[in-house]
Design goal:
Blueprint (H helix, E strand, L loop, with lengths): L17 H11 L4 E5 L3 E2 L39 H4 L2 H9 L2 E4 L6 E6 L2 H10 L4 E4 L4 E6 L5 E5 L2 E4 L5 E2 L9 E2 L2 H8 L28 H17 L4 H16 L7 H13 L4 H15 L2
Parallel strand pairs: 6-10
Antiparallel strand pairs: 1-2, 1-3, 3-9, 4-6, 4-8, 5-6, 7-8
Helix pairs in contact: 6-7, 6-8, 7-9
């Protein structure tokens, strides 16, 4: 498969939905694609995964799609086959689609996802020039060559290649350059040290004003350790697992003032070691607090 150095324009074809037309064009270039619903999340094509019920990660084997009756969602469902993309099984997905995503590793590409202005400045000062695509908060720098995907290799920098997807945001500017050694080196490093969670827990006094049972250090320690273990052992559905564990810890320990920043930091660390970004951790924590009325 050859890699385009400059993406041609999306050919006009009014008979097809816009996102499907874009997907078919990318597929012709050898880039595996999939539909995204609003919020940049994959569209689930089976009841198990509909509406993000499975945590927005397909039930995958080591390298293959989830075992659903039809092609489902996530990087493993990305394809270049126009027969699949236009099949009845995918028709519902394209009707729900709010965007198109692609599997960079499947096209032997790597996306350096720069999530803020500081990350963009670092890239411009450090990385060799390549194709650059503007995003909502930063830029995607696209290189030729596949590596493992890693979140948080630097503050605001993720690597998206194998077993990951990136949203298609247009052809960008510049030409695709070979993957440089500096990016390959980032992929084998440990993720950056997790900074302490900035969100504080708002707690309420016990209704009866009695002694808090969590004053036993062992009780609280068991709760935190169990949440860390569940997150660490989750084989898939990481987003959903992290949210559930945050919700469970807050429900059991978040009302009496015993839960400290150190405990929250341990939970965030466990989640980020499984690949969650700090932003996703903060969102999951705040959503759990909202669900409990905290």
């Amino acid at each position: 498969m050859t890699h385009p150095t400059d993406f041609p324009r999306d050919p006009a074809s009014p008979a097809l939905p816009t996102h499907l037309r874009t997907a078919l064009w990318l597929a012709e270039l050898g880039i595996p694609v999939l539909p995204l619903r609003e919020g940049k999340l994959p569209v689930g094509n089976c009841p198990t995964c509909a509406g993000g019920a499975c945590g927005d990660r397909p039930h995958m084997k080591a390298a293959g799609p989830c075992e659903c009756p039809a092609p489902c969602h996530g990087w493993a469902a990305a394809t270049t086959d126009p027969t699949i993309l236009t099949s009845p099984a995918w028709a519902r997905a394209w009707k729900q689609a709010g965007a198109v995503a692609y599997h960079p590793g499947g096209a032997r590409l790597t996306v350096v996802d720069l999530d803020n202005t500081d990350a963009v400045t670092w890239a411009r000062q450090t990385l060799p020039a390549t194709k650059v695509v503007a995003t909502t908060r930063g830029e995607h720098w696209i290189y030729r060559g596949a590596i493992r995907s890693v979140n948080g290799v630097r503050e605001g920098v993720d690597l998206k290649s194998t077993m990951a997807y990136a949203q298609w945001r247009g052809p960008g500017t510049g030409s695709v350059a070979p993957l440089p050694a500096i990016v390959r080196a980032l992929a084998v490093k440990e993720p950056t040290v997790v900074r302490q969670a900035p969100c504080a827990v708002t707690v309420r006094a016990l209704a009866g004003g009695g002694e808090c049972r969590h004053r036993s250090p062992a009780y609280l320690e068991r709760g935190i350790a169990m949440a860390e273990k569940r997150i660490n052992e989750a084989p898939d559905a990481i987003h959903k697992t992290v949210y559930r564990m945050f919700l469970a810890v807050l429900s059991a320990h978040g009302w009496c003032g015993c839960l400290t920043e150190a405990h929250i930091g341990r939970l965030f660390t466990a989640a980020q070691e499984k690949g969650e970004s700090l932003r996703h951790c903060e969102d999951a924590w705040n959503n759990a607090r909202t669900s409990l009325g905290m």
